[in-house]
Design brief:
By secondary structure, the protein is mainly beta. The chain is built from five helices and 38 strands. β25 and β26 form a beta hairpin. It is elongated, with a radius of gyration of 33 Å. The N terminus and C terminus are likely disordered.
C-alpha cells in the first residue's frame, strides 16, 4: 500500500567508553608496566574458546586496545610485548551488549615466560552508562515459563511494569512508556513490527545465547526505539557437536486445582464426565557444531552451525458464560416478564406540532409476526444461535449469561531458527541467521453461534507466517579501525479465511442490490479485533452476527546498518549509518456486502426514548439502517433502507436506499 523510509545517522564520541554494538560485546583495556607507564604496541590476541575464532589487535600509543563485535561466549585474552612476560587471561564470560575492561600490568621478563590469570571474580561492566539486565538463554530455557517465549524476559528483569498474560511484548512498559515503543533486535537487526505493533519474530529458547534488556540511557545505535530495548543473540556452533531434545508438557492429571475451583481438572464435573480437557505439549530440539562434509570440507575452527526447532501444541477447555436470544425473543417477544425496555414502532414516526418527533410504543413490547421483515424471517428460520441451556433472570436489555459452554483453546505454533558462522581469516568474519514462526490462527472462540458461516469468532481462522533473516560481517581493518555491517529482512504475513465468503449469502437472505461476496455484517463488532469475539454475546452484535471479510497482509522491513569504530589516543570514535525501508501490502475486505446496524435506530425519536435493542429492531419490516464502512470496494452510503408493510424491490440512490 505504500512505503515509509527512515534513515538514521548516529555519531557517538567518548573516552574509551563507546557503547557496544547491536547484539555483540566488546573487550577493551589498557596495557601498562609495573610502574604504571604505557606499553605501546603490545600485541593483543582475543580467542573464542569454543570456536577458536581469533581477533587480533594492538595497543596504541596510549596503551589502549579495543576489540568490538564479539559473539557472546567464553574468551581468552593474550597480550605480548618485547621485554615483558606474556599475559593470559582465560575464561572471560562475555555477555551480549557488554563492554568489559581488561586492564593489564605486564611483568618484566622474557616473552617465553607466561603469567596466566584464572579464578578471578567476574569482571564488572563499567564502560557504559546504559542501564539494563543480561539474562542467559540457558537460564530462560530452564525456567518453567509458559510457552517458552523469549518475551517472558520482560517479566523477570527490573525496571519494567508488565500487566496481563500476553505472550508477546504487549503490555510491557519500560520507564512508563508504551509497549509499542519497545525495540526488539535479533542478532543486530529489527525483529518486531515497526508500524506501531507489539508483534515479534521470536527465536526459540534452545537457540538463544543471551538476552539483554536495556531500560534507560539507550546507546545511540538504538535510536529508533524509544521505550527500551530487547537485544537477542543466538547461539553459534562450536568445535564439538552438541544437541538436545526435550518434551515439556502438562496433562489434566498434572494440572493443580485452582484456589476457587471445586474440582481438580481430572475429576468428573457437570458436563465433563472425564474431567476438563487440558493438554499442553512443547517438544523442542537443537543441534550445533562444525560444518563437516566427509572428504569434501572440514569446518573445524572455521565454519559452524546451530539449528533449533520447537512446536507448541495446546488444547484446553474452560467453563465460560455467554448470551443467546431466547425462543420468545425470536418470536418477537421482548417483554422479559414485564421488565423489558419499551419498543417504539418506526412505522408511526411523526412530527409533533411544536417540533420534534414521536413514535407510538408497540403493545406488550412485542413485534408482531406479521411485521417481520423477510430478511429477518430467514435469519430466524436459519437460527444460527445456540439454544439457551441455563435458566437465569433477565434484565431490561435481555438475557444474562443464559448459556454455559466449554471455551476451547486450540494453539498450534511451530518455530525454526538457525545460525551460520564462518571465519575467512583472522580479520574478517561472516555470519548468517534465520528465524521462522508459523501459527494456525485458530484462536479461542465463544460458543453462542452454532452455524459457522455466521460465527465471527470460531468460523474465521487467521494463520500467520513470520520470518527474520540477516547477513553480517565483522572486519578488523587495522588494530585501530573496525567495521561491522549487517543486512536484514523481516516479514510478517497473515491471512484471514472466512467460511461465509463466496457463498452468495445476500441472495440466500433476499437482500438485493449489494455485492454477494460475503455474509453481511449485522450489529457492532466487539473488542476482539477483526473477529468481533470480544462482544459476541451482547445485544449490540445481535449475539454474534457482527463479522467481517477476509484479508491478506504482509509487512516487510528491509534494513542496512554499518558501524565504524576508530581508536585514537585515549578516545574511541564511533560513527554508524542505518537505513530502514518499511513496506506494507494489504488486501482487506472489511464489509464487502454491507454492515447493517440496529442499535441506535430509535434513540433520538423523543428525549424519553431508550435505545432499541438490536435484535428487536432487526425484525420489523419498517426500517433498516445500513451504516457506511470502508472496504476495498469503496465506501457504502449511509442511509435508511425503508420497507413498506408490503415489501417492494429496493434500489440505492445517492446517500440513501429507498423503496
Amino acid at each position: 500500500m505504500g512505503t515509509l523510509r527512515s534513515m538514521l545517522i548516529t555519531l557517538a564520541l567518548a573516552a574509551s567508553s563507546a557503547h557496544a554494538q547491536f547484539g555483540v560485546a566488546t573487550i577493551t583495556g589498557r596495557v601498562t608496566d609495573a610502574s604504571g607507564g604505557v606499553v605501546a604496541g603490545a600485541a593483543i590476541v582475543v580467542t573464542n574458546s569454543d570456536t577458536n575464532f581469533i581477533y587480533n589487535s594492538q595497543a596504541n600509543e596510549e596503551g589502549i586496545f579495543r576489540v568490538p563485535s564479539l559473539q557472546p561466549g567464553r574468551y581468552r585474552v593474550s597480550i605480548e610485548a618485547a621485554g615483558f612476560k606474556r599475559f593470559v587471561r582465560d575464561d572471560l564470560d562475555l555477555r551480549a551488549g557488554f563492554t568489559l575492561p581488561v586492564d593489564v600490568q605486564l611483568e618484566v621478563g622474557a616473552v617465553s615466560e607466561q603469567v596466566k590469570v584464572t579464578g578471578q571474580a567476574p569482571l564488572l561492566e563499567t564502560e557504559t552508562s546504559a542501564t539494563g539486565t543480561a539474562v542467559k538463554g540457558g537460564t530462560l530455557y530452564n525456567l518453567p515459563l509458559f510457552q517458552r517465549n523469549v518475551a517472558n524476559v520482560l517479566r523477570l528483569v527490573p525496571g519494567i511494569n508488565y500487566q496481563g498474560t500476553s505472550m508477546g511484548i504487549g503490555r510491557g512498559h519500560v520507564a512508563g512508556l508504551r509497549d509499542t515503543a519497545i525495540g526488539v533486535f535479533e542478532d543486530g537487526v529489527v525483529a518486531n513490527n515497526p508500524l506501531g505493533s507489539t508483534g515479534i519474530v521470536s527465536p526459540i529458547l534452545n537457540n538463544v545465547e543471551d538476552v539483554k534488556v536495556l531500560t534507560t540511557s539507550l546507546p545511540a545505535e538504538y535510536g529508533n526505539a524509544a521505550g527500551g530495548v530487547i537485544d537477542i543473540v543466538r547461539k553459534g556452533g562450536t568445535n564439538e557437536i552438541h544437541g538436545l531434545a526435550s518434551g515439556y508438557g502438562r496433562s489434566r492429571r498434572m494440572q493443580h486445582r485452582l484456589f476457587f475451583d471445586q474440582f481438580k481438572p481430572s475429576q468428573e464435573q457437570p458436563g465433563y464426565p472425564n474431567g476438563v480437557p487440558t493438554f499442553f505439549l512443547l517438544p523442542d530440539a537443537s543441534v550445533g557444531g562444525p560444518v563437516v562434509l566427509p572428504k569434501i570440507y572440514n569446518g573445524r575452527n572455521r565454519t559452524f552451525f546451530h539449528f533449533g526447532w520447537q512446536k507448541l501444541i495446546e488444547k484446553k477447555e474452560a467453563q465460560a458464560y455467554s448470551n443467546a436470544p431466547t425462543p420468545e425473543m425470536k418470536a418477537g417477544d421482548f417483554s422479559f416478564g414485564g421488565i423489558g425496555n419499551p419498543l417504539f414502532d418506526p412505522a408511526t414516526t411523526r412530527q409533533l406540532p411544536g417540533g420534534g418527533w414521536a413514535r407510538d410504543p408497540l403493545p406488550d413490547r412485542r413485534v408482531p409476526l406479521s411485521r417481520f421483515d423477510p430478511v429477518a424471517r430467514k435469519i430466524i428460520d436459519i437460527d444460527p444461535w445456540v439454544a439457551p441451556n441455563r435458566v437465569t433472570t433477565p434484565n431490561a436489555l435481555g438475557p444474562v449469561e443464559n448459556i454455559i459452554y466449554g471455551e476451547k483453546a486450540r494453539v498450534f505454533n511451530e518455530q525454526f531458527t538457525g545460525r551460520i558462522d564462518h571465519q575467512i581469516n583472522q580479520s574478517l568474519k561472516l555470519n548468517g541467521t534465520w528465524t521462522y514462526n508459523q501459527t494456525a490462527g485458530l484462536g479461542r472462540p465463544p460458543r453462542n453461534i452454532r452455524n459457522i458461516a455466521f460465527d465471527a469468532a470460531d468460523g474465521p481462522t487467521t494463520p500467520s507466517r513470520n520470518q527474520n533473516a540477516s547477513i553480517g560481517t565483522n572486519w578488523i581493518i587495522n588494530p585501530s579501525t573496525i567495521n561491522s555491517t549487517r543486512v536484514g529482512y523481516l516479514r510478517f504475513y497473515a491471512t484471514r479465511f472466512v467460511p461465509a465468503y463466496g457463498q452468495d449469502w445476500p441472495t440466500k437472505l433476499g437482500i438485493p442490490n449489494i455485492p454477494n461476496d460475503n455474509l453481511p455484517s449485522f450489529g457492532i463488532p466487539g473488542s476482539g479485533g477483526l473477529t468481533g469475539a470480544g462482544n459476541a454475546g451482547t445485544p449490540e452484535s445481535i449475539y454474534g452476527l457482527a463479522l467481517t471479510g477476509p484479508f491478506r497482509r504482509a509487512n516487510e522491513t528491509l534494513s542496512f546498518r554499518s558501524d565504524l569504530t576508530k581508536i585514537r589516543g585515549t578516545h574511541a570514535f564511533k560513527v554508524g549509518y542505518q537505513a530502514l525501508r518499511y513496506r506494507l501490502n494489504a488486501f482487506i475486505l472489511n464489509y464487502p456486502s454491507g454492515d447493517f446496524r440496529f442499535d441506535q435506530m430509535t434513540a433520538t425519536s423523543r428525549p424519553t426514548d431508550s435505545p432499541c435493542r438490536a435484535l428487536a429492531t432487526l425484525l420489523p419490516d419498517s426500517c433498516w439502517v445500513m451504516s457506511g464502512k470502508p472496504s476495498s470496494r469503496g465506501r457504502w452510503p449511509t442511509g435508511i433502507l425503508a420497507r413498506a408493510p408490503t415489501p417492494s424491490t429496493s434500489r440505492m440512490t445517492g446517500r440513501s436506499c429507498r423503496s
